[in-house]
Design goal:
It contains three helices and no strands. The protein has 69 residues and is mostly helical. It has one domain. Helix 1 packs antiparallel against helix 2 and helix 1 runs parallel beside helix 3. It is elongated and about 35 Å long.
Length: 69
């Protein structure tokens, strides 16, 4: 399960980066922040033990989506 959370985060961050590159070139730094937050989720650590990392990813992704809107 832990690895699935990271995989999903990486897939989502890649998709957001692709949208950003195609439509929002001025948000490249924000998209990179989302990607960084995704890869900082460690599959070998229980999700509950890295709540802050998961919350950071979700917050960065939400911020980017808000800016794209």
């Amino acid at each position: 399960m832990r690895n699935k959370i990271r995989k999903a985060a990486v897939i989502l961050s890649t998709s957001l980066q692709n949208i950003q590159q195609a439509k929002f070139p001025d948000l490249s730094s924000d998209a990179a922040d989302v990607k960084t937050a995704a890869v900082e989720i460690k599959p070998e650590i229980l999700t509950l033990d890295q709540r802050d990392a998961v919350k950071l990813f979700l917050r960065k992704a939400a911020d980017l989506l808000t800016k794209m809107n």
